Amino acid sequence: MIIRARNLSPSKLKPLSSLSLFFTEPFTSTTAAKTSIPLLPMTKPQISNKTPHLLFFTNHFTFQSTATPSPPKKYQKHQQKQESSSSKSLTLNRDGNYDDATPHNVVCPGCGVHMQGSDPKHPGFFIKPPTKTKDLMLKTGSRYLVPVSTEPEFTVFLKKGVLLEEKGESTDIEEENLDKEMPEKPVVCARCHSLRHYGKVRDPTVENLLPEFDFDHTVGRRLGAVSGARSVVLMVVDASDFDGSFPRKVAKLVSDVTEENYTAWKQGKSGNVPRIVLVVTKIDLLPSSLSPTRYEHWVRQRAREGGASKIAKLHFVSPVRDWGVKSLVEDVVEMAGPRGTVWAVGAQNAGKSTLINAVGKCVGGKIGFLTEAPVPGTTLGIVRVEGVLPGQAKLFDTPGLLQPHQMTTRLTREEQKLVYVSKELKPRTYRIKAGHTVHIAGLMRLDIEESSVESLYVTVWASPYLPLHMGRTENAHRMLEDHFGRQLQPPIGEERVEELGSWVRKEFHVSGHSWDSSSVDLAAAGIGWFAIGLNGEAVLGVWTYDGVDVVLRNALIPHRAQLFEEAGFTVSKIVSKADQALNKSQKQNEKKKKQSDQKTAITAEF
């Protein structure tokens, strides 16, 4: 057996001087007799700078494990009292570090929550990184490890050996170079660490302890101030769910403040006029055949209807493909000026953090600090992003606004993965007649109730992971009872169907003038949309869960699929797995029934 130990200079031994180098329990003659180990005199070893010494770190020389004694009850009560007092003093808010008085190291640079190291069941918990000395010991690896002994006399009680030997100054220089080669990474909370490395949150219920982000209180009052730095609002909207992710309340608030302060400014009074920069992100998810001019006209119209009366700039970007980021940065820098304040605002999972990281990469600033994950509500508090804007201009990432009318806010993490769009959308088209129904998973249903024409075209734009079904409307109630939570997921599981609430119907009267392209969309927030193509009029019924917003709008994408879907379920992994489980269950039931019939027949014979 070869024992290796670290070969360090005496200057590196200071952190080791406090370690216990002796046996914690004295040996008795009885113990020595049982273990056949000679007694050693308990003398304190002297550390010399000239000759190497072998220091042994061992456990008790006994075969019986001794339990750690529990402290007296009065100390336990005192400890509990300390823990409760520390948990009460934890900062539970979403203000982050937008205030200049808040230090940077107080909040998590990934999500903006206040950091704390006392309670892992509270938001912002983090584990303190190892000290620099310990980090250097890990970096140096095994090149400073030298053999201590090759003799087999060492017993199983010997756990570690450290050889103390003087080393030249080259060791210090090499370790300093190693430290310079590896720059320090920002310390993030445990939640951000889990999202970055595993793509999920271990305990999502912890976030419920935080209050809801109050945009009016934190950002709104600064935008409404008649004096102060110039304000620019980056209104980030998801291209694949424009109406569902569009922040209507923020748009109305900023538009009202802009109009009010602009009127005061024209009268010669003080007036800070905020500027809205509408950023439509994730445009790589839309079909490449979409006309940019048509899309810009469509976006401006939807934004006006959503409450944004005046838009200073409009940008279409894709942080993943690096589309349009450079021109966005140039406009923001010009509009903010040397002392302005830029606020990135948007719904949960709209892509604000990903956009800001792309902006930081574009200007060569600090990048990759903000946590990115396909999970709604990744950012928990306001994060001040440094090194992106020039001069004294400031950039803030704000928590995602909760949109109760979005379906994704009600889904579990696993269900959200099925709804989340990560690739370019592909159309799935049905040629359908009145009296038929199309389901998008167990989330949305379209009924063709009346039509002035024989047939019409229904194109589904949604995540490819969502299974579809087309059948007669008279059988729709059976779909809810027999297939929701199974072939039609999400919801995942039958119990989730009841948890999501009741279904409600909304009626829409639509008309079109062409068979070749879609005329109108019926979009459900957080799910997707039906594009309707017809040359006539029709009465449509849309069913979804109570509270989910459904809007009628001009068609976003006019074209449809070249090949039509057939009646029944679409081919998908969810449907195939559900069918396999159903077939297996039916075979087991048939087998049990057959065995039961055989037993009955045998009993009847006797």
Q: What profile does the largest beta sheet have?
A: 6 strands, mixed
Coarse morphology: globular
* Poorly predicted sequence stretches spanning 5 or more consecutive residues: 1-69, 74-89, 138-170, 178-183
> Span between N and C termini?
74 Å
| Percent in helix | 25-40%
- Going by helix content, strand content and strand pairing, the class is alpha+beta
CATH top level class name of the domain at 219-403: Alpha Beta
By DSSP (H or I, 4+ residues per run), the number of helices equals 15
Protein name: P-loop containing nucleoside triphosphate hydrolases superfamily protein
Pfam family, one: YqeH-like_C
Keywords: Hydrolase
Region (Disordered): 65-98, 582-606
Structural account:
This is P-loop containing nucleoside triphosphate hydrolases superfamily protein. GO terms for molecular function: GTP binding; hydrolase activity. The chain is α+β, with helices and mostly antiparallel strands and 606 residues long. The chain has 15 helices and 21 strands. Strands 7-6-5-8-10-9 form a 6-stranded mixed beta sheet, sandwiched between helices. The protein has a 6-stranded antiparallel beta sheet with strand order 16-19-13-12-15-21, with no helix packed on it. A 5-stranded antiparallel beta sheet has the order 11-14-18-17-20, with no helix packed on it. A hairpin with a 3-residue loop joins strand 17 and strand 18. Helix 6 packs parallel to helix 8 and helix 10 packs across helix 11. It is globular. The protein starts with a strand and ends with a helix.
